Amino acid sequence: MKNYSLQLRVWHWANAVVVLGLLGTFFLRKTFLSWHTNSQILLDKLAGFGITVTTDQAAALAKAVRAPMWEWHIILGYVFAGLVLWRLVMIVKEGFGYAPENSHMAWVYRGYKVIYAVMAFMAVSGLVIHFYKDIGLAKDIAGSVKELHELVAWAIVAFVALHIVGVFVADNRDQKGITSKMISG
Fold this sequence. Notes:
- The relative contact order is 0.12.
- Helices cover about 80% and strands about 0% of the residues.
- Helix 2 (about 35-50) packs antiparallel against helix 3 and helix 4 runs antiparallel to helix 5.
- It is elongated.
- It is an all-alpha fold.
């Protein structure tokens, strides 16, 4: 089994932390910090205190509550875009840094090529969503890009799960030490 370069290992673990942070903020936005759900909670609770607010006011409050968390998603998105660019430069300069050692690993190698394309799409689409006004994109088109961005995010979720399971299986079968090599080289 090939050793992984320090650059690839640093990129891998930095990317892992950033992707998990992005997925965490994504899940929070879709669940506990959903403005749709929380605006209704605010309407109901405030009404229980005898305070009446409009649906729009409750939505604005719910969005304000989640705004600091969402800022983290945006910051992590910038870092993610930088990491994707860094990885693409590494691929151009050094290749992928690993290659299939046998024919049954070829599908894994191709899978990484696909996930890098997905990551590039996520980085570009995230930047497009964030800067849609600055680049002169219509709000409805930005909304469509956002829907696709959120849909493709599930591919990242699937990849992370498959990656963790795959590494565990490989480390316990024919690629003993793969985990420690990604840590120590």
